[in-house]
Amino acid sequence: MNWQLEPTEQFERDAKRYAKKQPGEYLAVMENLEKYVIAIESSSHPGLVQFGFLHEEPKGMRAIDQSGGALASGGKRGELNQTRLYTYAALESKVLHLLCLGSKTTQAKDIRYAASAVDALCNE
Q: According to the model, what pLDDT value does residue 70 have?
C-alpha cells in the first residue's frame, strides 16, 4: 500500500500563501517532500528515513525544510528563507499528514498548532 498525503486546511492556506509570496521556498520544500515520500515508500518505517532536510519534532512529527542541492529544474536554490513543513506519519493507515508550513519566525506557533493537530488525529 502506498502512502497517501493528507493536507490540513491550515497547510492548504499556508501553501497557497507561500506559492504566491515565497515561491522559491515553497518549491524547495515541496521537492524535499517528494524525496521524503519516495524514501518512505521503500522503507519499513518513516523514522528510519534520514535526510539533512528532515528534523525530528515533538509527538513524532517531522519537519521538512528548504535546504538541499539543486532544484529539479536544474537551477540552484540560492539564498532561501528558513521554511518548515510539519508532517505526521500515521503508520497504521499509511497517511502522511501535512500539518502546516511556516518560517523560522513562526516556528513556535507552528509547532504548537501541529502538536495539537497530532493530538486530534490520535484521538479520532
A: 58
**22 vs 81: CA distance, rounded Å:** 9
- pTM value is 0.91
Any idea what the Cα angle at residue 15 is, between residues 13 and 16, rounded to 5°? 65
Query: What is the residue extent of each domain of the chain?
Result: 4-122
Mean pLDDT of 7-27: 95
- Residue 29 in contact with residue 37, Cβ under 8 Å? no
Specify which residues 6 forms β-bridges with: 97
CATH number for region 4-122: 3.30.2310.20
Dist. CA 18–CA 16, nearest whole Å: 6
Grid coordinates of 38: 519516495
Question: 23: which 3 cell numbers?
Answer: 515561491
pLDDT at residue 57 above 90? yes
Give residue 19's pLDDT. 95
Enclosing H/E stretch for 39: helix 23-41
